Amino acid sequence: MIVVITAEAEADLEEIASYVAGQSPRSALTLIRALREKCESLADAPRGYPWSRATSTTVFDGDRSEAF
What we know:
Blueprint: H1 7-21, H2 25-41, E1 51-52, E2 59-60
Antiparallel strand pairs: 1-2
């Protein structure tokens, strides 16, 4: 499986990094690296992280394109 980080996700990561860097540039770098590693780990275990909506306790276990 290939993990693709969308332009929107990249922009979110940059915004998060900028916010955290205001307090600690080193912590921002560490956080962003950890987030990227977690995203990339999806390629190794795509079903290892159940998908669920933030407002729901239902876990979607099918084709994610059907959820939108």
